[in-house]
Each structure stands twice: as structure tokens, then as C-alpha cells.
Design a protein that fits this description.
This protein is of the alpha/beta class. The protein has one domain: Alpha/Beta hydrolase fold, catalytic domain (Rossmann fold, 3-Layer(aba) Sandwich). It is 43% helix and 17% strand. The chain is built from 15 helices and eight strands. Strands 1-2-4-3-5-6-7-8 form an eight-stranded mixed β-sheet, sandwiched between helices. Helix 1 links the parallel strand 3 and strand 4. It starts with 11 loop residues before the first strand and ends with a helix.
């Protein structure tokens, strides 16, 4: 594996084994544990601009989820449970327990936020506080899908197509695909706000066919298993009980939903939140305002 730029100086590197899979983590700081889970199409590297500040008061664990970055990328299965958010939440709990943390706060962005809220629903005794960055619940997105949102979020439908169609098309030019995706979701529609070193991380792992397949399986799970269990929880009136902070980008979720916090109030018993001037990548595009919201929430 090529050497990658060091984005977390002073952080330790730990590989945790769970059910035959390897999970890559970077760990730094001291204090109450905080698990950070990235989204698509990124890796744990997305936290590099805010992790040092968070590590001043927390033990920060930034992990690559299954199928992403330097963690294992097993093949999918017919039911897509292998990449369901329930399975990925169980991975994360196992990683944290192996590191000595039975209860912890969890922060997720994009797909990682879907894993985080699934964890809070399935394992409420495990989650101390929950931070959700720039998403709405999976079932809410599907239920609200219309022509304009389907065009904007075309990847939800494209990546969920049967294997091997999306894998083949992406693998033909993975650098072009990931760069287009990342740029299109920033506030200024360029890559300028993202670190060149972080982009090197993202590009490298997107060139691996096994990880392209894993990403597609992540979205196939979102269209099937994840949507089903979200609907079951909503219909049963189950709610997230952990104190929750929801932040969203003014030029991403905030551009398509008039009241993201109102949506999350239907899912949480104790939630607060606000917009951040940003595209989709809050912690990379506007780390100062993102930290200004997260730090007091975790400390409060």
C-alpha cells in the first residue's frame, strides 16, 4: 500500500479485528470517548481539521467503516445486510469495546451519521451523546424523493442498481467520479475547500474495485434493509433518547429542506441544532463554526 499523507500527528494507529474483518482507527486525546464515523465517498481522513481540537477534551476514535479506507471490504450479500447500518453499527460498538469503551458519544457525517443514529436506536445504553452532520433519516429521504431531489441525489438511485452496473461504470474512471462527486457537494462546487492530502486518501481507496463494490452495497442496503428498519421504528414510535445535536450545511441539506431540525424532532426526544455555512462537508469546509457548535454540546 502506498504511503499516505499523515493527517493526524500525535494520534495512535490501531487495527481492531472483529468477526474476521480488520478495522482501521486513529486514536488521540484523553477524556470521555468520542467515536467519529465518516461518510461517502470519504474515509476517517475527513475529521483531520477538527479532531485535534476535539482531542483536547475527548478520547477521539476516528475509524474507517467496513468497505471504506483501510478497513476490510467484504463482498455483499443478496439481502444487503452485510452493509446495513445495523451491521455497521455493530462493527463500531465492537471496535469501541475492544478499545475499552462500553459507552461513548458518537458523531457521524453522511453514511456515518446513518450508522450513528441506527446505533442510538438499537443500542440506547451504549450512546452517551449523538452528533448528526448533514443528513435526514433514510426513510424520510426516500419518502420525500421527487423529481428535483432525485436529480440532486441521483447517487442514491445509481449506486443502488444491481451489481455490476455501477461498479463497472465507476471503475472505468474512479478519480473523475470521486472528484466530480466531492466538488458538486461543496458550497462553491470546487475541490478548493478540501485538503489535497485528504483528497489523496479519498482517491486511493476509491480506485480499489472491492471498495467500489462496498460503497454500492452501502447504498443498496440504504434502499432496502435500512429503509425497512427505519420504517419499523417510525411506525412503532421508537425514538432516539440520547441528547442529540444536528448540524446541516446551508448549501446541502439546508438547501433542500426548510426545517431539518423539525424532521429530527420527530425522531429524537432531546434534540437541538442549527445550520452551518457550508456545503455537505461541514467539518472540512467550515471547521471553526462546526467546532463552535460541537464542543459545548459535548461538554454540556
Amino acid at each position: 500500500m502506498p504511503d499516505l499523507p499523515e493527517l493526524f500527528p500525535g494520534f495512535a494507529t490501531e487495527t481492531v479485528n472483529h468477526e474476521g474483518l480488520r478495522f482501521h482507527t486513529r486514536i488521540g486525546g484523553s477524556g470521555p470517548p468520542l467515536l467519529c464515523m465518516h461518510g461517502y465517498p470519504e474515509t476517517h481522513a475527513c475529521w483531520h481539521r477538527i479532531a485535534p481540537r476535539l482531542a483536547e477534551a475527548n478520547t477521539v476514535v476516528a475509524m474507517d467503516m467496513r468497505g471504506y479506507g483501510q478497513s476490510s471490504a467484504p463482498p455483499g450479500d443478496a439481502s444487503h445486510v452485510q452493509y446495513s447500518k445495523r451491521t455497521m453499527a455493530n462493527d463500531a460498538i465492537a471496535v469501541m469495546r475492544a478499545l475499552g469503551h462500553d459507552k461513548f458519544s458518537v458523531m457521524g457525517h453522511d453514511r456515518g451519521a446513518r450508522v450513528a443514529y441506527r446505533m442510538a436506536l438499537d443500542h440506547p445504553a451504549t450512546v452517551d451523546k449523538l452528533v448528526i452532520l448533514d443528513i435526514l433519516p433514510t426513510i424520510e429521504v426516500w419518502d420525500a424523493m421527487r423529481a428535483d431531489s432525485a436529480i440532486k441525489s441521483y447517487h442514491w438511485l445509481f449506486l443502488a442498481q444491481p451489481e455490476p452496473l455501477p461498479e463497472t461504470l465507476i471503475a472505468a474512471n474512479p478519480d473523475n467520479y470521486i472528484e466530480h462527486t466531492l466538488a458538486s457537494w461543496t458550497r462553491d462546487k470546487t475541490l478548493d475547500a478540501l485538503s489535497p492530502d485528504a483528497l489523496e486518501h479519498y482517491r486511493l481507496f476509491f480506485r480499489d474495485r472491492a471498495r467500489i463494490h462496498a460503497i454500492c452495497e452501502d447504498y443498496r442496503a440504504g434502499a432496502t434493509f435500512d429503509r425497512k428498519v427505519d420504517a419499523q421504528d417510525r411506525d412503532a414510535g421508537h425514538k432516539i433518547t440520547a441528547p442529540t445535536l444536528v448540524l446541516w450545511g446551508t448549501d446541502y441539506v439546508g438547501a433542500g429542506t426548510s426545517d431539518p431540525l423539525g424532521v429530527w424532532r420527530r425522531w429524537c426526544t432531546n434534540v437541538e441544532g442549527r445550520p452551518i455555512t457550508s456545503g455537505h462537508f461541514l467539518m472540512e469546509e467550515n471547521p471553526d463554526d462546526t467546532l463552535a457548535a460541537i464542543v459545548p454540546f459535548l461538554a454540556g
